[in-house]
Each structure stands twice: as structure tokens, then as C-alpha cells.
Amino acid sequence: MKYAIIIPDGCADEPQDSLGGRTPLQAAELPAMDAIASAGVVGRSNNVPASLPAGSDVANMSLLGYDPHQHYTGRAPLEATAQGIQLGANDWAIRCNLVTIEDQVMRSFTADHISSDDSRQLLAALSDTLDCPALEFVPGVSYRNLLIYYAEKGHAEKGHAEKGRGENETAPFSEDTRSTPPHDLTDKSVINDYPRGPGSDLLNQLMSDSVAVFANHEVNQRRVASGKLPATNIWLWGQGRRPDLRLFADIYGRQGTMITAVDLLRGIAVLIGWKKIEVAGATGYTDTDYAAKGRAAVEALAETDIICVHVEAPDEASHEGDVEAKITALEQIDRHIVGPLHAALDQQGDFRILVSPDHPTPLRTKTHSHGAVPFAIAGTGVEADGNQSYDDVTAAASDLAFAEGWKLMKYFLDLVES
Ligand SMILES: [Zn+2]
């Protein structure tokens, strides 16, 4: 049996006035997703427990079959893993966005989708002002960068260099350290959302230092001159230590392969022992090369039990409150990824195909939310439930529901009854 999972990130949404009361999934033309709904089942699952933040990290961990209550330690360690950083047991990874804050309002949590090169230069300048050897900025893609606190180096700084990395030394952070994802603050005041709790002094100091370093930096002068927003600050969040995840193959007896443009998903893939395929033209944004991802997924089928294609574009469109871009992204995913994958699976024998986002990202709030997401499953052994459409409203009326989204994986893989 071959399996395909398509994740249109953040596609679940509310009815929109601008769409005549329909949700984006209802309004978009999605013949391939609707074909899965018609041939199989539509249900809903809840990937984000109420006690955890409604992030792609928690939600995708659930969607891939891991209970986030047991395994979630924070977003940044997943991204650090994706970048090949081996965290020691006491090291901490912290997400470091480049952002645009004006008059204490979060104007852009991406610093206007800053280029990786601009990002790297600004972080290098900030790095030059650091006087804490435990800290290291790690440039990533665009606004998505990391700050690592290496406990060993922090230890050496305090004159205990005889101990190795991760031994008896801890960073100043704890499970009680609080920070706010900057994408939750779009167009809002940031004044009450700076880091707080253990170690927050250090984080706030670094964020404050960045303002002075970035203010007149030539990168920002060039950005402003060309009509782009400047990167005014770093925003630190998503801190955590290395998570402990069992290999997917050991739990579910299947090999998986991930196609994504987002480090978070790459990191989860590495930690659960999946392969990754890097697709040229996959950007993690609405301009991604959908067809290239679809082709890569079809080609990968021969080599893997499960192919998973994650597409960030619908989520990004929601963050920008852009209903048209969200619909376009969904239609592109449908046409270039879901359709070709379903057709290819159909030709090769037994298969199952699953479409599900990780979490809702309502256009109204421009940020992730808790709550159920719609899924559709079709394939071998799946009896049609009579639903014809893959959308939020159909799913809400379905009898098939998973209150703990991580249990959906066993159902999808046909390892248990619902
Ligand atoms: Zn997401």
C-alpha cells in the first residue's frame, strides 16, 4: 500500500462575507479534493490541544501521528534540527524572526519577506555586538532565523570549562519562559508581548540591542530606498530544548518522505526518521512552484511508503488577510499536487490519500487558531460516506471526528478502526 498526505497549511477557515458566506475551501474550485471526498470520507480532527499554542509545530506533530502533549518542546528546536544543528541535552534553540515594528506595532512579522541575504548581514552585525559566548545566531531562510544557547559555552564562560556540553549546566530559560509568536501580533501592539519569565531579561536585551544595530544599517537604507519595509528588530520566541521523538517506522511500520519548503516540517521529518526531498522552486510562500512539488511527489512514490507534501502558501495568504491569494493557493494545490498524486496512486495498486491542514488560520484574525480542521481520505478499503465536497462545513457535520488529532494517522494507515 502506498500513501500520500497533502497538507495545505492553515487552509481551514470561517465563512467569509466577501465569499457570500462561504469558507475559502467552499469557494475555491477544488475538483481533485472533492473527488477524494466523493470517493471516500470527510471528517474533522483537532491537532492542537487547548493547553498548547496553536502553532504549525504542535499541529503538524499531531497530524503526523505524535501526541504533542508527550513530545512538544517548542518550535525552534525542530527548526534547528532541520538545519543540521545537533542540540545537546541542555542547549536551547530560540526562533529569531526579523520583523518590522513601528510605534510598538507589529507591522510585519517577516520584515516584508526579507531576503536571506539581507537577513544574514543584519544578524552578522548584531552578532558582532554579542558578549555572551553561549549565544550563536544561525541564519536560515528569509525572516526565519535561529538563536542557539549552547550550555557548554555558557558554562565555559562562567569558568567551569572542565565540564562537557550539556553537563550540569543549564541555560537561564525554563518551561515557564513565555514568548509570543510575532505572527500572532500582526497590526497589534507588542508592548505586552515581550518575553517574560526565566531568561527573559537576556532575550529582551538582545531584542533591544537589535533596534540600535539595525536602525541605520546599510541593508535597511537600501531596503527603504527601494520601497521595502526595513527590518527594525529581531523577535525572539519558540524557545525549547531538543524533543524526544520515536522513529515513525518503529511506531507505524512505514517509511515516509517529506516535501516542504519550511524548516519546521523538515525538522520533524528528520526527528521521526523520514527522508526529505528538496524541490527547486519551493519557496514556502504563495509564489511557490506547485507543479514542481507535485511532480517530485509523484516521482517519489516508487521509493517510499508515504509521500507527504506540505504547502505553506494558504497559511501565508491568511496571515496577510488575502482571501483571493488563499483561494488561488488552494486551487493550485488541488490542480498541481492533489490531482496528479491521486491519479498516480490510482495507477499503481493499493493506496490511500489524505488531505488535511494542520490548523485553521482564519483570514479574520490573520493568525493560527485552535479548533478542528477538515480532512478527506480516499483509497483502498475506504467506503464512501456520501459527502461530495472537501470543506469546513461538510467536515463540521460529519460523524467522523478525532478529538485528538494524532490518532488520525493510525486510522489513515488502516491500522485501527475509527
Ligand atoms: Zn501551519
Any chance you could write out the topology, listing elements then pairs?
Blueprint: E1 2-8, H1 24-27, H2 31-39, E2 41-45, H3 56-63, H4 68-71, H5 76-82, E3 92-102, E4 105-108, H6 116-127, E5 135-141, E6 144-149, H7 151-157, H8 200-215, H9 218-225, E7 233-240, H10 248-252, E8 256-259, H11 263-271, E9 275-277, H12 290-300, E10 306-311, H13 313-319, H14 323-348, E11 351-355, E12 373-379, H15 392-396, E13 401-402, H16 408-412
Parallel strand pairs: 1-10, 1-11, 2-13, 8-9, 8-10
Antiparallel strand pairs: 2-12, 3-4, 3-6, 3-7, 5-6, 11-12
Zinc ion (ZN) binds at residues 9-10, 56, 59, 315, 358-359.
Protein described:
It is a single chain. The longest helix has 26 residues, at 323-348. This protein has helices at residues 24-27, 31-39, 56-63, 68-71, 76-82, 116-127, 151-157, 200-215, 218-225, 248-252, 263-271, 290-300, 313-319, 323-348, 392-396, 408-412; strands spanning 2-8, 41-45, 92-102, 105-108, 135-141, 144-149, 233-240, 256-259, 275-277, 306-311, 351-355, 373-379, 401-402. The strands form two sheets. The protein has an eight-stranded mixed sheet with strand order 9-8-10-1-11-12-2-13, sandwiched between helices. Strands 3, 4, 5, 6 and 7 form a five-stranded antiparallel sheet that branches. β3 and β4 form a beta hairpin. It has 16 helices and 13 strands. Mean pLDDT is 93; it is low at 159-168. 34% of the residues lie in helices and 18% in strands. With 418 residues, it is an alpha/beta fold. Zinc ion (ZN) is lined by residues 9-10, 56, 59, 315, 358-359. The site of zinc ion (ZN) has 7 residues, from α3.
